[in-house]
User: Fold this.
Amino acid sequence: MDEKLVELIMGELKKKLGEEVKTTIPVELSAKHVHLSEADSLALFGGPLTYKRELSQPGQFLCDQRVRLIGPKGVIDNVAVLGPARSESQVEVSISDSRALGLKVPIRQSGDIAGTPGIVLASSTGIVGLEQGVIVAGRHIHMSPGDAERFGVKDKDLVCVNMTGTRPVVFRDVLIRVSSDFNLAMHIDFDEGNGSGWTPASECTIVKQPQAEFCGV
Amino acid sequence: MDEKLVELIMGELKKKLGEEVKTTIPVELSAKHVHLSEADSLALFGGPLTYKRELSQPGQFLCDQRVRLIGPKGVIDNVAVLGPARSESQVEVSISDSRALGLKVPIRQSGDIAGTPGIVLASSTGIVGLEQGVIVAGRHIHMSPGDAERFGVKDKDLVCVNMTGTRPVVFRDVLIRVSSDFNLAMHIDFDEGNGSGWTPASECTIVKQPQAEFCGV
Assistant:
């Protein structure tokens, strides 16, 4: 399709929708955090998790509770607990954190914890040993079915995204996650954010797979 | 040029050179470190820096000496000092380190320290206040004039590179630095390494600037 025609169609679309057709995706930084099962919440805090404030994805919330992570080499205090309770507890850390704890942690998507390392969780009143559940969360983009249609992608697709920032990068193999429960946002962790010069204003766009060729810039 | 012709030429080149024409660049991780002026070395250690072991770039070496970095918010101990002495002291940290120290540190290339934050350096016997000199080192590729010719780039070019790893990325705006003193290596810091799943086997290739378009993967 030639560019003028694309421009014309975009113009008509904008008029029809009454708003700009946005092609950028906000990028949010995920700090280390813990999801707890009801049993582990009971063992650590003597009861269910309690709501402190909502998070960007609908239904997810920060809890009043905080935990200590105890690894073979180090300890990390005051780690956020997110609700609601899940069927299995899960601990999400960065590679930097995993080194501080002394654990070798694979990169996984949330929920995929088979064969991951365990860890000890502690509060001021309880302690729990997890046999598995520590992951470095794989980066991903949450979007609604409407967003997916707009971007021409579907659930479980892997895409490349270009991120603005002081150290601009293209993240490859970014997982698309589509659900009517999701707000549009890309999630990366602190290592990825620091390594790419992320700021709260950072946005990304889906790009073509870069070609492996020399460039004479 | 069609692909068969390129293949033919590459084959002839390989025969002529008697070896594989390597198109990958090794990637090395730079940990936080300090370069000291002779005056600051004297103030901290009572004398010149002493050689411990050589580094990957010719003439650069790790020193026996170590320093403490003291920022407004935090302290980092046991930081490496690299020799030889320079005309001005310079401290290279990651963005993670800069947060721990409580400093807002710009991304700069080595030597470009005008207007950067200061810091306090301490040893067991001395203390020095730097008025400026703390940077987050901009990623760069060291190469010889021969390598530059082979890759079709020149000193101060900015290129995109594709890095292999568990979290594959394309780093954009990577500075080419050409000198007959340099061995071929890309240098990134720990944030960039952790964010991209760097391993000691990671390599990069120069790629074309990714196009800002949707991809229907």
Notes: Residues 24-28+139-208 of chain B form a domain with the Barwin-like endoglucanases fold (CATH 2.40.40.20).
